[in-house]
Amino acid sequence: MPRQNIAAEALLGIEGLESASPWALAHSIEAGLPVAALEQFTEIMAPDDALFKYRLVPKATLQRRKKSTGRLTTNEGDRLVRLARVFSFAIEIYGKPDRAREFLRRPHPMLGDKPPLDVALTSSPGADLVINLLGRAAYGGAV
Q: What are the C-alpha distances in Å from 81 to residues 25, 51, 64, 107?
């Protein structure tokens, strides 16, 4: 199966950062990722779920961001990038976005029967658990 390697930055529509300095993405998050990055990512991550973006940023908050700065806070951007990295790795492992989405939405016994997507959204350590699980799948570990 051909594998795709889609950088998290490309999923967010902020391409070019992966070839810039190692600090470029961190600086972009600190400066405030554009709301458009959230919009683009959620269209790729959940094309059939118009409400998915509100799992990352509550609806009222997102509306305020659009009207004021047009940028996400550092915490919102960090959460968005965290999930984009998980999805990017899932695509790399499963080869296709549809298969990656299926994995992320299906409850997994090694995550307390929670869907990996929910675990990754909860915290950075949760996202690390999901990435570790994906790594096990990729490199022959028990999953």
A: 9, 18, 20, 22
What distances in angstroms separate CA 93 from CA 28, 29, 84, 104, 109, one per listed residue? 27, 26, 14, 12, 19
pLDDT tens-place string over residues 26-79: 888 999 999 999 999 999 999 999 999 999 999 999 999 999 999 999 999 999
Look up residue 2 and give its amino acid.
P
pTM of the model: 0.88
56: number of Cβ within 10 Å: 20
Q: How far apart are the first and last CA of the chain?
A: 20
Query: How do residues 124-135 score in pLDDT, each as one tens digit?
Result: 999 999 999 999
CA 84/CA 46 separation, integer angstroms: 12
Whole-number Å distance between alpha carbons of 141 and 143: 6
Strand partners, 34: 71
Taking alpha carbons only, the member of 96, 77, 82 closest to residue 131 is 82
| pLDDT given at position 4 | 47
Beta bridge mates, 108: 114
